[in-house]
Amino acid sequence: MAEERRQKQCSVVMPTESMKAMAESVGVGQLQEDSCVALSEEVSYRIKEIVQDALKFMHHGKRRKLTTNDIDHALKLKNVEPLYGFQSQEFIPFRFASGGGRELHFYEEKEVDLSDIINTPLPRVPLDVSLKAPKEQQKSEFTEPLKVVKPGQEEEGSIQAKGQGATSAEGLGKEKGSIRIKPRSTHELSVEQQLYYKEITEACVGSCEAKRAEALQSIATDPGLYQMLPRFSTFISEGVRVNVVQNNLALLIYLMRMVKALMDNPTLYLEKYLHELIPAVVTCIVSKQLCLRPDVDNHWALRDFAARLMAQSCKTFSTTNNNIQSRITKTFTKSLLDEKTQWTTRYGCIAGLAELGPDVIKTLIIARLSVEGARIKAVMEGPVVSNIDKIGAEHVQSLLLKHCASVIAKTRPLPDVVDQYRTDYGYLGPMLCSHVVKARAQAALQAQQVNRTTLTITQPRPTLTVSQSTLGVSSGPRTPSIIKVPSSLALMSTRPGTPTQPSPPTTKYIVMATSAGAASTQQVITLSSAQSGSPVTSTVPSTPSTLQPLVKLESSSTAGMSRPLQKYIVVSLPSSSSVDSKGSGVLPASTSPISVEQSVKLERSESPAASTQSPH
Amino acid sequence: MAAVQDGQVESDAEKETKPDASNDVAGNSSGGARSMSPNAASSASGAAKAAAPTGPGEQQTLLAVLQFLKRSKLLESVDILRREAGLSDELDESQTNDGAAAGSGAGSQGEGSVDAASLLRRVSVGGAAATNIAATTTSKGAEDQPDVSIVLSAYSQQGDPALYQVYYSGLKNFIESVLDCHRAELSQLFYPLFVHMYLELVYNNHEHEAKVFFEKFSGDQECYYRDDLRVLSGLTKKEHMKGNETLLDFRTSKFVLRISRDSYQLLKRHLQERQNNQIWLIIQEHLYIDIFDGMPRSKSQIDSMSGSLAGEARREANKAKVYYGLLKEPEIEVPLDDEDDEAENEEGKPKKKKPKKDNLGSKNKKQDPNAPQQNRIPLPELKDSDKLDKIMSMKEATKKIRLGPDTLPSICFYTFLNAYQGLTSVDVTDDSSLIAGGFADSTVRVWSVTPKKLRKVKSAADLNLIDKEADDVLERIMDEKTASESKILYGHSGPVYGISFSPDRNYLLSSSEDGTVRLWSLQTFTCLVGYKGHNYPVWDTQFSPYGYYFVSGGHDRIARLWATDHYQPLRMFAGHLADITCTHFHPNSNYVATGSADRTVRLWDVLNGNCVRIFSGHKGPIHSLAFSPNGKYVASGATDGRVLLWDIGHGLMIGELKGHTDTVYALKFSRDGEILASGSMDGTVRLWDALKAFDVETDDFTAATGHIHLPDNSQELLLGTYMTKSTPVIHLHFTRRNLLLAAGGYNSQ
């Protein structure tokens, strides 16, 4: 076969007819046959020569296709004037025609009307050359050029890492696709990313609280998790689906904490994954049953927490296009209005609505207070149907009182008359009245000591709580003066089986330099329970310029020690700015071993008295 | 004729015998004649004015004239001629016999007159007598001049065109019938003989015969000569031969074959028996047979070395000493990180990194015996900023990961989007902070890949205004308004095929189809110099690792060495037989490697401009080169998709990496030399275990003969293949921390 081809190579020459045709086109008629043969041979040879040179230009241009430019350059090499006006980026559309035993290839040149060209709008300007590196790589390169990443974090290093060719091919392929429309697709993860994903998910739903804290911290802070986001989102949505059926409250709580951590990560944007996350979260709010023993387990905390998540995502992602907030509100309201709705779901709906803000409470909940009150009354005072219903009614009642009181306190004109309340709100009226009175009193106090309270809020850092709980300290007796742990913190209990009981903090805070210590701690209760992360920081900047030393009374007992030790720890806050930064970092889930260590170090260094007391 | 050539300057003769000696080896058969030949050659060239390296032929001509005179009883003339030629009687006799033996089969009959007749016949094959002899000799003499018409006239001798086929197939039958061990070696003859016979036919206007000849035998040739055959096939007329470069290559250089003594004897005996003058003539005139003692080589050994345009490299071409060692690094005190960290600790800030001791300084203390002298090539003095940069790179180097088969580098691919297939070259600075691309639309674009944007220096008027005493004067001279992520450099008038950053990142070189090399300032983003010298496209250019010098090579087959402050080249490296497609500096800046379309890699000494190594073995134009960081090895990649590894010290091929399916456009060793990365037109990056590849036993014998058995272990050496979707890989770069950066232009079709 090779020989055949070579024969062809050797013998291919331009047909003499072409010579004649070309001669005619330049005005030479009647060309001798001999001249034609001689010419065609010569022309064939020269054309071959030029094409061979043009190939060189193609090779150096790193292309596989010969272009007209290559031919031009080859002509230039031979000192021949290139063909002007014969530019074509792509292949030249030669057309084939045959007839009368003749075969012809020709280049169709259309006649165009000049006015057509003038009148047609200009074509779009072609895109300019741009350089593109994998997103993750670029990021890490910006922060720290080409760092050698630790094995644990390698997934953020480069999109295409060692491993099988297949994964890297995908990785490389991704940015190729982006020249047109970037398809939103999931990508193969590199080996490191797979490892990371496995570790993180296992830690998040595993039994070790310390590991979980670390994992959540990683999710909440690490950049470059973007690639894994779809997987996390699927993990959560599937996890909720399975665990709701199995009534596994602990796992649901862990999954919700993952959602929280994902939302906290500033480098992630969840909008594309809300279709998976929102159903999961809403399930955790309104599901009829979330745990095996609804009478004992505190699934109410989960509902509260999930409701807060829902509110946060509404705030962040709701746009006029997706209408998340109004759709969610409608869903809640619909089941709230339904007569047959169970107490658990009812609780979830109310919690979900209440978290959406005072306006929603005012228009949707307060208006229904009397109806709900009647329903509660039926359960509380009527024939005992079941214990579960009663507990549900109680929780709904306290929830309603909690949320409505603060709103009513702000909106309702002052004289709080019990009877008036009864007529306005029905069964719940009298209780509401007393709550409102209390709320008004608190508001007044708050107004007096805004500065102090905002400062102290930042103190109950969850890190401290966790450092305690990881040490395995059993719950001690709660003293009345102890700060009430925010319900969100209750989720961090060491015992996954019974998250109903919040792990009581063994740390006591005494705020120095306050005249009314009890009053100030009272305020911590209210504010810190309302604190769910973001809104607190806004009040923080108004810290006083003076330093606020803080004494921490810590009853710690490490695993090896039998005798609990009492330590007084004075924590002084260096400046308002650092308080600010700490305050913004106070999130229930963001715990890190480093900060624990730091706080321990602080204890050692700053309280010599304590170190002399303790044998270690 | 001898009289005409009277008055030759004797002193020249001695000098010119040197090339002759080797020719004698080829031309003369018996051992006895060989031992005498230098002597004879010196006298012969003393007499023969032409003095070209075609000694034996002229000697024989001379002897033939003597014989003729003797026969014609012109004894006086004989004496005069002999005296002038300095030939002794017995030499005369032995040479006569010898020459006859070599020239034609008739020598065995041993009679003087017959010898002379046969010699005469041989010399004047063209038919005519004395006049033709003169013509032949002069043409031979001028052989080294690339004047085409003179060169071509060597083909004027001709036999019966109809017999060419018979000759060729006779030889073919013979070679196919010899023992296997010789067959492979003798098969090497096919291609050069085929080419030269074809050209002779064409030259003598036997167009039809030439065509038939080509069609009949071109299929027998090794597949790697396909490209050349394609060129040949188009060449069917005498007029075409003028100005054809490929043809010129065949003529100006002898095709080099390496054949064992046994095989050569066999061939010679056969040709003598068959009285195959035509072939013998071609062998003598156009081929250079490098005879070695020892076992004939196997087919695979031959195949690995052959393929270049002019056959294998001559053995003596690779004998020169090459100082491949690295230069001593200037001693720079590297401030250890300790102090900084301590200061930080006092402030109570958390420590981020553990300080590491710098051990690099001690390593460089020893002088490498293979290293050139420090001042062999004058190198530019280090500036303060260079020292700072060195310190930076040393610090970075301490953080690099050691690569190996188990720890492969991560690869980051920089894709040029919307380049519309116009991306022709890419380079990355050593510290990986800038990327430059050369484009077919004559532009050069520079990108910053760090957050630091590219800024121009302020205009002269603005520069007058700034405070020159300020500490941050270097910062103040920059114009903040011009900050951008990329800059475009306009100036070329043709595609930019080569691009190279200076080591200090202040300059950028670009070479283009327009025949110029341009030097750009990366401070002002303007063109500083256009170096004109190549009149044809310049395919590649590269800065020396120490800056200041740079090398360029292009279509004119001459690589030029330049210094940035000279507008004319300092050295011209001439010797390649086709376009120089890539150029690369040795890490010690004393040598330059060039790859060419003649399928050889040559190494040139910057000091004296000599060619010190010729590596043959590629089967296609070479498009990429890379030196190992220790300077001992060089890797080359070609259009055939193979990567070959060469030991510079021994001048040997030591490895072949097969795997790519298209041109290898990029090669790079990791910073420690453990991994070789190759990027190709086929859109893959492949990683090879370089340490294992270099770990081949080279005993003395192999080193002396250059016959290496290449293990076919490409698959074992291949550590990874990484595919892109549709992006040819045209540049590779290892960062100082051994992260691999690759670059290429996305191809949307």
Automatic annotation (TrEMBL), chain A:
SMART domains: TAF (SM00803). It holds the Pfam family TAF6_C. Residues 575-587 have a biased composition (Low complexity). Residues 589-598 have a biased composition (Polar residues). One of its GO terms (cellular component) is transcription factor TFIID complex. InterPro entries: Histone-fold, TAF6, TAF6_C, TAF6_C_sf, TAF_TATA-bd_Histone-like_dom. GO terms for biological process: RNA polymerase II preinitiation complex assembly. Residues 12-78 form the TATA box binding protein associated factor (TAF) histone-like fold domain. Residues 150-179, 575-616 are annotated as: Disordered. Transmembrane segments: none annotated. Keywords: Nucleus, Transcription, Transcription regulation. GO terms for molecular function: protein heterodimerization activity; RNA polymerase II general transcription initiation factor activity; transcription coactivator activity. It is found in: Nucleus. The keyword Amino-acid biosynthesis does not apply. The keyword DNA-binding does not apply. PANTHER family: TRANSCRIPTION INITIATION FACTOR TFIID SUBUNIT 6. Belongs to the TAF6 family. This is Transcription initiation factor TFIID subunit 6. It comes from Denticeps clupeoides. The gene is TAF6.
Automatic annotation (TrEMBL), chain B:
The keyword Transcription regulation applies. Residues 159-287 form the TFIID subunit TAF5 NTD2 domain. Residues 33-52 have a biased composition (Low complexity). Residues 1-57, 89-112, 334-385 are annotated as: Disordered. It comes from the Eukaryota. It holds the Pfam family WD40. One of its GO terms (cellular component) is transcription factor TFIID complex. This is Transcription initiation factor TFIID subunit 5.
